[in-house]
Design a protein that fits this description.
- The protein has about 290 residues and is an alpha/beta fold.
- The protein has a domain at about 65-225.
- The protein is built from nine helices and five strands; from the N terminus they run ααααβββααβααβα.
- It has helices at about 1-25, 30-45, 45-70, 75-90, 130-135, 140-165, 185-190, 195-200, 210-290, and strands spanning about 95-100, 110-115, 120-125, 175-180, 205-210.
- A five-stranded mixed β-sheet has the order 1-2-3-4-5.
- Helix 1 packs antiparallel against helix 2, helix 4 (about 75-90) runs parallel beside helix 9 and helix 5 (about 130-135) runs antiparallel to helix 6 (about 140-165).
């Protein structure tokens, strides 16, 4: 944006100089060259072009590094795992996910998420070699050859994920995620191999990109939160039932005490009081008779 602005100023100055010399009766070539040179110097185009060239070289070095990283399977896999771990740690509490831990009868997925449906395994070792060759191939026929090879690689990888990571009998969910660290590759698969992607979803193997994984994580979190609230409500219900049973027992004991023991005690107390009054009356009569 800055470069466009500076070039615009330069063109404006050249236009002004041209108009001035057009009005002049005898424009000199040397004066025109000096005017152009001063305009060039005042704007600092030489310095700006130098800075842009240095910036372009740095960008080229960074792109070369990323290109090499994506060509080497081990480094590419490491980048995918790092990106995956970043997404999980940003969106989930530590107790809800794990990285390269043994689960479900001994398998070790690249990552996993705890959910209400069981442990969701995540694989991030996506086969991208033939995809890279496809996008770099100059010839359309060659690109088509690598395209078919890439889709065949994907199919084989999805079959392996299905065998290794979908084990409901060992505590996994009935589905697993295959993480693709690129939205471009994800949409290529959705557009170019939609039927294959859909068929594997029915088998429980879901291909996810950074954006779609983040969306699915929110759904898993909502499910876990709903489960937590349901468990909390159940705990409160059980507590209320326990308190209710306690009140029932207390009410029953009170009724027995009041209607039986307390009433009997009251009756006995009345009998004792009557006997006492009768005895006192006789004693007073005897006392009065002796007094006479």
């Amino acid at each position: 944006m800055l470069l466009i602005l500076l070039l615009g100023i330069l063109i404006l100055q050249i236009f002004i100089i041209f108009r001035l010399f057009k009005r002049s009766e005898s424009p000199a070539k040397e004066e025109l060259e000096i005017a152009f040179y001063k305009a060039w110097q005042n704007i600092g185009v030489d310095r700006i072009i130098g800075e842009l060239s240095a910036y372009a070289r740095k960008m080229e070095e960074r792109l070369n590094f990323l290109e090499k990283a994506f060509h080497v399977p081990h480094e590419r896999g490491a980048l995918g795992e790092i990106a995956l771990e970043g997404i999980l740690s940003d969106q989930l509490p530590p107790y809800m996910f794990g990285i390269r831990e043994k689960i479900a009868g001994g398998v070790i997925p690249d990552a996993y998420i705890r959910s209400t449906n069981g442990i969701i395994c995540i694989d991030s070792k996506f086969p991208l070699d033939n995809y890279m060759r496809m996008i770099e191939a100059p010839d359309p026929k060659e690109r088509e050859i690598y395209r078919k090879k890439f889709l065949n690689d994907v199919k084989g990888h999805l079959d392996k994920v299905r065998r290794d990571y979908i084990r409901p009998d060992n505590g996994t969910a009935e589905f697993a995620f295959v993480y693709v660290p690129s939205e471009a590759i994800y949409w290529f698969l959705v557009n170019e191999a939609f039927d294959m992607v859909r068929s594997y979803i029915k088998l429980g193997v879901h291909i996810v990109s950074p954006l779609t994984l983040a969306h699915k994580i929110e759904i898993v979190k909502a499910g876990m939160e709903a489960k937590r609230l349901s468990e909390e409500a159940e705990r409160i219900r059980r507590s209320m039932e326990s308190i209710s049973e306690g009140f029932k027992r207390l009410d029953n004991n009170w009724r027995i005490f009041y209607e039986t023991h307390l009433r009997n005690l009251w009756n006995k107390a009345s009998e004792v009081d009557s006997s006492y009054r009768e005895l006192k009356r006789r004693f007073d009569d005897i006392k009065r008779g002796l007094g006479k």
